[in-house]
Write a structure and sequence with these properties.
359 residues; alpha+beta; 9-stranded mixed β-barrel; 3-stranded antiparallel β-sheet
Amino acid sequence: MRMLKPALIAIAVAIMAAPAMAQVPRTKSGHPDLNGIWTNASLTPLSRAKPTDKLVVNEAEATKIAGGTSIAGIPADDPEFNSNARYSDPNKGAPAKGGSDFGLKGYDSFWVTPGTRLAVVKGEYRTSNIVEPATGQLPYKNPAAVQKAQQAGFIKYLTGNDPYIGPESTTLSERCLIGFGQTGGPGMLSVLYNNNYQFVLTDEHLMILVEMAHDARVIPLFASAEKARAGHRPNAIKPWFGDSVGWWDGDTLVVETVNVNPKQAAEQSFALSAKGTVTERFTRTGEKDIFYEFSVNDPDTYTQSWKAEMSFYPQSRLYEYACHEGNYGLHGILAGARLKEQQAEAAAKSKGKPAKGGQ
């Protein structure tokens, strides 16, 4: 049997590869087309439940995990959680004093749409977004301090345990300045609902419009990584979602973000210091898939750089996010804080002592 010549082998490989390459839509400039409306909704969390758990599971295992996944601390198959989506009793009254209306009373399966399955990435069911380190855990330098800060922030959100001197005391997402749970990135994560995005790609920019709170990122594109990094703004400028620049690395669009606003960094899903850099990579892998990965390099916060992977799939439309339309929550929070102050002042006067903070 005669061996094929190298040139003929190369032609044969090119012919076999051509159909796969043709499946990736391209712009007039020849780059993979990222335009469209996409979703990254899934039940897969950022970190794995246990370091010993597998990253990749089979379909049966994935179905079992998805069926036992809790949503906002509530099992997805909880009957009241699902029945509330059909009817909410207007005469049920307020929650117990000191309690929280988060969960069954505040959210139900009509509003909560995190997805119905684990994330499928590269054809695999994944149990965490994090792929490096291999444990699937965030490699914090001081995990106890980070956990304490995150718990304090979550408790503040749930219980209103804060002086609330003014509206600025509430979280950024509570004020609808940016979306909940880092849905807008950098490092765009799937959250409880509104996991839809619109990508608009031109030769000069990538615009990402996030359904949650209508967050928008406008990312300038450059001819090379060197020119992009030279295009970063001065370090004194720290906008929401950070200072992002992009460039093409072959068929992959790379976006590098520095100087995320410190207020946002303090409230997002993973900690980030002033030295933190987030690098996102978008690779169109077919008609119905964008492979998305991001890495975080932050020597002040982590013992090593780490990486997460997920996929974006086509979505039919982007829905309106009416964050404060008809919302009387903030007024109630501030009015309640003022009432507590009045009560404290009255109690102090009755004891002949000045109220805390008074003269």
